[in-house]
């Protein structure tokens, strides 16, 4: 949510910042802005709407802006409606300090009232403006001291980029509970919310920890804590190339990322079965000391946990709870030193999941995370971390990162089951062989793309689409429904097939589509009975599964899947569901990579 980019160096900051903002569009936003230091003053241009609107404003400026230091921002509204005034950057009344902010300031009302009593006039409705005004109030000639005073006064979460007119060659950054990286190149230094914003210029980055301050100039990057003690940071190299953050000829990032899944699954499985950090962690993990597993996450990562619950309980015979992180943090969860809490997050920066992690650790539970971003908060703070090999995922609606999470969870379940002596070495070998076969099965599934595209073109008029399944098919139905509603804006819900008669069937009427998933052979007749019940009430059915000899008609369509073990079938079902959701949205002409009101990384509550 929100995107920050800043630059100080020898090149024109305008072009670099605009390019960086484009690379951060995937995070979700409703307005954008830029502040440049040029001829002894800040020049701020900000605009509600897409970046193209901001670029138009920049192009129409009376004179072209120039400068070698600047900050930019894409805003996702939390306090105050989307508008030009509420957009970032914010500048204090004296036009001395400019700020961009990602996060939420929980005590902004108290700070604002205090500053207003001192005669300071606010112009926006945002919580973020209070940072700029407070910084100007505290400023006495030392920008670092000012930043420290501001950070001590703020309650909540923040990643900040700060410039001061009195120090026109210095860019300062600080973070708490929100991501911020520092990029290093031969011509200057960057701050950014995420790596893609700077990857065109450098693959060398520092990862800031909470309450660490970065002081950047053209040829220097220095770090300190809020006691002004100098810090030594490790410069890290980003291993993926800029090409992996480009569309590569596809119309949308989402389709590109769907098509990348065979490779992603293969790379992720290899990362845990061959030599490497993931393998070392899993092979040396003592699951026997726990009597319970809790998985907690948000959104699609939560759905991955629901799928994994079926796999873990079947193989490990160990109780597994799956909790929404936003609920876990407030429910006084029953966890202790005998509990393993598994946290799942693509970004590693999901605010609710971070809070759940800290609550679990406070209660003495061991924590293991599955994340996609090296150096992220969850990766650094959990007791154990295993990384997916998804690479950068740009589309807001996750696809390949979800599949990578499933792959790791499968292998974990198998390894834990062996350690717990619930399956034999021979069974382990068979199961791992099936997991290793998933990339080829996924590639085979992608050959159905033409049929799915054609079928989806007939579905854009539906007001409601329901997804049903039983057992593990129900778990993946949750993800199919979420994908559809995220990007097509069609009302959608997922239900366990056996629950149809407990209320849900009352919603079935003419012009309703029900997507039924069937990979559990022992439950095939049950799900087919559900399908017949909804057809008899005027609905149409799309059956997705590895069933055989299915007879289709005007009311009953079928997408066949490659034969795959029931336990691991969600990895193949989900590709069909992702393609279905994608092509429904594409046929509606929607902005698939940037669906309305959504953000890639939810870094606020």
The whole-number mean of residue pLDDT values reads 90
Instruction: Write out the strand line-up for the largest beta sheet, numbering strands in chain order.
Output: 3-2-4-1-10-9-11-15
Q: Estimate the helix proportion, in percent.
A: 25-40%
Task: Please count the helical segments.
Answer: 19
Radius of gyration: 25 Å
Structure description:
Helices cover 35% and strands 23% of the residues. It has 19 helices and 25 strands. It is an alpha/beta fold and 605 residues long. The model has no long low-confidence stretch (mean pLDDT 90).
Concise structural overview:
The protein is built from 19 helices and 25 strands.
Map the helices and strands:
Blueprint: E1 3-9, H1 13-23, E2 31-38, E3 41-48, H2 51-59, E4 69-75, E5 90-91, E6 97-105, H3 108-117, H4 129-138, H5 143-153, E7 156-164, E8 171-176, E9 181-184, E10 188-192, E11 204-207, E12 213-217, E13 220-224, E14 230-231, E15 236-237, H6 253-259, H7 261-273, H8 277-283, E16 292-297, H9 299-316, E17 320-324, H10 325-328, E18 339-345, H11 351-362, E19 366-371, H12 377-381, E20 384-387, H13 400-419, H14 425-436, H15 438-445, H16 449-456, E21 464-469, H17 472-488, E22 491-496, E23 513-518, H18 524-535, E24 540-545, E25 556-560, H19 570-587
Helix pairs in contact: 3-4, 4-5, 7-13, 7-15, 9-13, 9-17, 13-14, 15-19, 16-19, 17-19
């Amino acid at each position: 949510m929100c995107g920050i980019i800043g630059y100080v160096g020898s090149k024109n900051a305008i072009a670099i910042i605009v390019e960086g903002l484009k690379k951060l569009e995937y995070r979700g936003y409703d307005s954008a802005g830029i502040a440049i230091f040029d001829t002894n003053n800040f020049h701020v241009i900000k605009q509600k709407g897409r970046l193209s609107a901001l670029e138009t404003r920049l192009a129409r400026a009376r004179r072209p802006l120039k400068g070698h230091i600047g900050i930019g921002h894409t805003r996702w509204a939390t306090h105050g409606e989307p508008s030009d005034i509420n957009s970032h950057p914010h500048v204090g009344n004296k036009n001395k300090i400019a700020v961009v902010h990602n996060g939420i300031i929980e005590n902004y009302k108290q700070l604002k009232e205090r500053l207003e009593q001192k005669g300071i006039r606010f112009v926006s409705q945002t919580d973020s403006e209070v940072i700029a005004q407070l910084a100007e109030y505290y400023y006495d000639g030392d920008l670092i001291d000012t930043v420290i005073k501001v950070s001590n006064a703020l309650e909540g979460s923040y990643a900040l980029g700060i410039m001061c007119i009195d120090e026109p060659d210095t860019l300062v950054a600080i973070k708490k509970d929100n991501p911020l990286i520092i990029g290093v190149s031969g011509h200057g230094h960057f701050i950014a919310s995420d790596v893609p914003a700077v990857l065109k210029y450098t693959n060398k980055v520092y990862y800031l920890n909470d309450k660490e301050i970065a002081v950047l100039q053209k040829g220097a990057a220095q770090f300190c804590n809020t006691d002004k003690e100098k810090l030594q940071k490790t410069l890290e190299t980003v291993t993926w190339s800029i090409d992996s953050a480009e569309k590569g000829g596809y119309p949308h990032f989402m389709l590109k990322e769907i098509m990348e899944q065979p490779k992603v699954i293969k790379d992720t499985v290899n990362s845990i079965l061959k030599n490497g950090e993931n393998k070392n962690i899993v092979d040396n993990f003592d699951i026997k000391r726990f009597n319970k597993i809790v998985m907690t996450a948000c959104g699609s990562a939560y759905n991955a946990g629901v799928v994994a619950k079926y796999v873990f309980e079947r193989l490990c015979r160990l109780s597994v709870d799956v909790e929404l992180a936003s609920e876990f943090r407030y429910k006084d969860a029953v966890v202790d030193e005998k509990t393993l809490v598994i946290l799942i997050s693509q970004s590693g920066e999901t605010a609710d999941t971070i809070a759940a992690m800290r609550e679990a650790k406070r209660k003495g539970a061991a924590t293991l995370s599955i994340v996609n971003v090296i150096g992220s908060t969850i990766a650094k703070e959990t007791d154990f971390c295993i990384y997916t090999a998804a690479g950068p995922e740009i589309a807001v609606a996750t696809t390949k990162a979800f599949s990578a999470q499933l792959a790791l969870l499968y292998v974990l379940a198998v390894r834990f089951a062996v350690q717990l002596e619930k399956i034999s070495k021979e069974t382990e070998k068979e199961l791992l062989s099936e997991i290793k076969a998933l990339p080829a099965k996924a590639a085979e599934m992608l050959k159905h793309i033409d049929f799915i595209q054609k079928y989806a073109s007939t579905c854009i008029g539906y007001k409601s689409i329901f997804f049903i399944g039983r057992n593990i098919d129900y778990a993946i139905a949750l993800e199919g429904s979420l994908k559809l509603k995220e990007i097509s804006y069609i009302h959608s819900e997922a239900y366990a097939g056996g629950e149809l008669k407990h209320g849900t069937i009352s919603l079935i009427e003419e012009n309703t589509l029900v997507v039924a998933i069937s990979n559990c052979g022992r439950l095939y007749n049950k799900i087919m009975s559900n399908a017949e019940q909804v057809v008899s009430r005027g609905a149409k059915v799309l059956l997705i599964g590895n069933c055989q000899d299915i007879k289709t008609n005007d009311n009953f369509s079928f997408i066949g899947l490659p034969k795959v073990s029931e336990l691991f079938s969600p990895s193949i079902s989900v590709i069909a569901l992702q393609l279905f959701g994608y092509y429904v949205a594409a046929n509606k002409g929607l902005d698939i990579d940037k669906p309305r009101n959504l953000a890639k990384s939810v870094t606020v509550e």
